Structure formats: C-alpha cells, structure tokens
Amino acid sequence: MALFFDAPWFDEKLEERGLSRAVMAAVAGLSQDELALVFKDQREVSAGQVAAFAELLGVSAAEVANRAGISTPTPRQDAGARIAALERRVAALEAEVARLKSHT
C-alpha cells in the first residue's frame, strides 16, 4: 500500500488509455482543482471515487486504493451483486462443461 498518492502511476494509466486528468475529475464528480489536490496528496478520495477511477482506468478498485494512499477506502461490493456475478460465472462454467461433454 502506498503511503502517498502515486501520481506517476495514475498519469501512466491515464496516458495508456488516452485520457486526461480532466476526464478523471469529471468521472469522479470532482473539479479539476479538487483532483489536483488529490494528485498532490492534499485531499483524500472516497470509496465511490475509488470505484470511478478503477472503472475509468480498467483496474481493480483495490489497486486504485493501494495506489491512492494509506487511508483510502476500498469500495464494498454489494452482496447481491457479488452473488449475481458468481451465479453468472457458474452458469458460464456449466455451459462450457456441457459443450465439452457434447464433443466427447
């Protein structure tokens, strides 16, 4: 876990996706000035902003939280959403097993 906001990492991820800090601010509901404070480690981000950054950058919320500084919260996943995601994965696995069995 980073002690401070890892601005170079965030800038690299933004560059990889062809995005700017202005887009990042907008996605998280921050002004550009507020995001500048985040990048200077003078403002903390919320769990919701962590989730928004993660989605924008195509990384996990845990990775964003780890790179955003020691006191950054990781968003909790709704239990219902987690169960639904697991059920979709199980259904996909069952379909693949059925497909494989049909080829034997």
Question: Can you put this structure into words, describing what you see?
Answer:
With 104 residues, the protein is mostly helical. 66% of the residues lie in helices and 0% in strands. It has helices spanning 7-16, 21-28, 32-39, 47-57, 61-68, 79-102. The radius of gyration is 18 Å and the shape is elongated. The relative contact order is 0.14.
Descriptors:
about 100 residues, 6 helices, about 0% strand, elongated
Strand content: under 5%
Amino- and carboxy-terminal Cα gap: 48 Å
Query: What's the gyration radius in Å?
Result: 18 Å
- Annotation field: number of helices: 6
Structural class: mainly alpha
β-strand number:
0
List the helices and strands and how they pair.
Elements lengths: L6 H10 L4 H8 L3 H8 L7 H11 L3 H8 L10 H24 L2
Helix pairs in contact: 2-3, 4-5
Question: What's a quick, concise take on this entry?
Answer:
The chain has 104 residues and is mostly helical. The chain contains 6 helices and no strands.
